[in-house]
């Protein structure tokens, strides 16, 4: 039987903000999405005030001001770097590590199974706290689904004090019989409704389903879920990340865009970033889709959504080739007289760069590969957008609103916090 843990950072985005700004401790804090649109992270204090995930900031602005809620713009550069530090802190406590999301990591604890794993997990939490200041909870169980459920129990039930070890069948049954079926990892809204019609409302009742019944109700996905709740692991910790099938770079604009040159500046940036992401994963793409659209939530404005798919032949991760394809698509789809508020690049038909099919008349691929490597190194060393194509420009009027973004405390030398001794 496997021994798997899930360590989850509490209120992660808020905790990252508090790591460098002590004035945020003990006060309600909300982190807003791109363009400062919606609440995507809330401190415990903000949750207590009734701020819900996804609440539009402009609709609750008065309530936020009344209760002294601090709003921070999302700072994904900071959050990503802090994730790297959290993972570094937990690596010595597990034989294998699988990053599930920016704030959740699965750990293989099988080599440590004979230890007191609650003490082991608490030592790991202490190290994360010392290295990053970020509070965490840990769930331990024989399968990933049970570890996810154990983590939720550790976070919500004070009896566990931040660590829930559900390897004990009696304790596991006690938790499963009190855990809502709709909150089980992998149970969607439609499946939860079907389960409720059968009177299945707890995780324990899902565990007790017949396999044939589970497959008939929710296909093989629910069948595997039942097995995992019974302690039969459907998969171990994945050391090798599964190959991605698609990739996208999309953004909403800070202000509406109504001319092609400005739009192309944004599309150019997204195409360059898409190429950088492809290269970082060792992939090439066979198809590029460029799209841009008006604000579909405004009933008083003219609406238009443009989308063009371009075949990439040969398959490529060359940012300049992606940019050329995106430009052709954007120019073909452009319509005057509209105020565009969002655009993006989507890449499909991804394969490993080593396995890409060759073409008879392709140019000097090695030379272009060296150019892209040099471009990545320059922007990696001196900061994003140091070297850009002329079409992208430097003014970037389309960039997202981020009026309350914290500094890049850990990734930009001029914004590293300075401590003075007196």
Describe this structure in words.
- This protein has 422 residues and is of the alpha+beta class.
- It has a domain at 246-392: DNA polymerase, Y-family, little finger domain (Dna Ligase, domain 1).
- Helix content is 38%, strand content 20%.
- The chain contains 13 helices and 13 strands.
- The strands form 3 sheets. The chain has a 5-stranded mixed β-sheet with strand order 5-6-1-7-8. Strands 9, 10, 11, 12 and 13 form a 5-stranded antiparallel β-sheet that branches.
- β2 and β3 (39-42) form a beta hairpin.
- The longest helix has 21 residues, at 260-280.
- The protein is globular and about 65 Å long.
Keywords:
single chain; 422 residues; alpha+beta; Dna Ligase, domain 1; 5-stranded mixed sheet; 5-stranded antiparallel sheet
Present the secondary structure layout.
Layout: E1 4-9, H1 12-20, E2 29-32, E3 39-42, H2 44-48, H3 61-66, E4 70-73, H4 76-90, E5 96-101, E6 104-108, H5 117-132, E7 136-141, H6 144-156, E8 163-165, H7 169-176, H8 189-197, H9 203-207, H10 211-229, E9 246-257, H11 260-280, E10 283-294, E11 305-316, H12 319-333, E12 340-348, E13 351-352, H13 365-382
Parallel strand pairs: 2-4, 7-8
Antiparallel strand pairs: 1-6, 1-7, 2-3, 5-6, 9-12, 10-11, 10-12, 10-13
Helix pairs in contact: 4-5, 11-12
The number of strands is 13
**CATH level 1 name of one domain:** Alpha Beta
Characterize the largest beta sheet: strand count, sense, and whether it forms a barrel: 5 strands, mixed
The helix count comes to 13
The overall pLDDT average reads: 87
Q: What is the CA–CA distance across the termini?
A: 57 Å
List low-confidence stretches.
none
Q: Give the SSE string.
A: EHEEHHEHEEHEHEHHHHEHEEHEEH
